[in-house]
Amino acid sequence: MQESVSRAEMLAVLAADAAKIKSNLSKQCNVLCMAKCPAFEEVADTQIYGFSCEVKLAEKYGVLAADEGQLLIQELEQGLANIYATVGEDE
């Protein structure tokens, strides 16, 4: 088991997780056209919450500063807002 994680490794993991969340939700929007569905919004909220927990863990162990973590969360939220906007245009 690895004893420590570098800042670069943590940023790579967080970037990959954020990209995966955006990709999965984008695919669901494209396939199911359910961006306005309460269940879909619940999934998005749950994903953002899980990601924010990852970020807080990285902050707790000093791998990320609080403002950096907040920026990562905001970027994910903005990406999801863009997905919603794109689906809303198609309706």
Could you describe the 3D structure shown?
This protein has three helices and no strands. The protein is mainly α and about 90 residues long.
Q: Please tell me what the overall shape is.
A: elongated
Which strand-content bin applies to the residues?
under 5%
Largest sheet: none
Number of helices: 3
Keywords:
91 residues; single chain; 0% strand; elongated; mainly alpha
Structure at a glance:
The protein is an all-alpha fold and 91 residues long.
Blueprint of the fold:
Layout: H1 7-32, H2 38-60, H3 66-90
Helix pairs in contact: 1-2, 1-3, 2-3
